[in-house]
Amino acid sequence: QSVLTQPPSASGTPGQRVTISCSGSSSNIGSGTVNWFQQLPGTAPKLLIYTNHQRPSGVPDRFSGSKSGTSASLAISGLQSEDEADYYCAAWDDSLNGSFVFGTGTKVTVL
Amino acid sequence: QVQLVQSGSELKKPGASVKVSCKASGYTFTNYAVTWVRQAPGQGLEWMGWINTNTGNPTYAQGFTGRFVFSLDTSVSTAYLQISSLKAEDTAVYYCTRAVDIEGYYFDYWGQGALVTVSS
């Protein structure tokens, strides 16, 4: 059972902007940094955003992350067909001796 | 270039054991922890814990104590996940990742995953 809550699905047409939310608490997002991962069908997850808003080399600037309080969000602007994937937020949780927690995941569909 | 290459798929019977390997290359193995992440069929990602590649000290997440063991062979830059007394609910893809600890933790490189199927 994940402690980070995401909407199960999101969708948009090519070119649109899609935003995914990630709701946590003071023991995880509220006290640390957030990462986002993209998982294309049948592949391993890939780091998309780290430390709330940083993009690894090679990740298009269409992807942006932000954090406010105990929530975070991932925005995809100029949606493209290849963005159809599952997206997960993640953060360190200080409760229960500390552990890394992933969000429930959001399936993005490009209509 | 950084790579994590995992061993192949395994089909095991309930009660058996399995050992998944994760060979790292392209960086100094002992400079970064290795984490393990489980993904059951059609489900999300679950952090299993990690191992300090400098000291060999493992940390297990809740729900992954007892039957799960993380180990290393630093001479060949390889991390291992061993699962004993396998159950049907252990059927999943197991990923190893490299963990970075700079302004918070993040997992920047992932193995391709190893599918473990437990079935009689």
Salient structural properties:
heterodimer; A: 111 residues; six-stranded mixed beta sheet; 9 strands; B: 120 residues; seven-stranded mixed beta sheet; four-stranded antiparallel beta sheet; 0% helix
Describe the structure.
The complex is a heterodimer of chains A (111) and B (120). Helix content of chain A is 0%, strand content 45%. Chain A contains no helices and 9 strands. Chain A starts with 8 loop residues before the first strand and ends with a strand. Chain B is built from no helices and 11 strands. In chain B, a hairpin with a 6-residue loop joins strand 5 (46-51) and strand 6. Chain B starts with a strand and ends with a strand. Chain A binds chain B through residues 2, 32-33, 35, 37, 39, 44-47, 50-51, 56, 88, 90, 92, 96, 99-105, and chain B through 35, 37, 44-47, 49, 61-62, 95, 100, 102-113.
* Fraction of residues in helix of chain B: under 10%
Average pLDDT figure of chain A: 95
User: Could you tell me the number of beta strands of chain B?
Assistant: 11
* Order of helix and strand elements from N to C terminus of chain A: EEEEEEEEE
Contiguous runs where pLDDT drops below 50 for at least 5 residues of chain A: none
Q: How big is the Rg of chain B?
A: 14 Å
End-to-end CA span of chain A: 30 Å
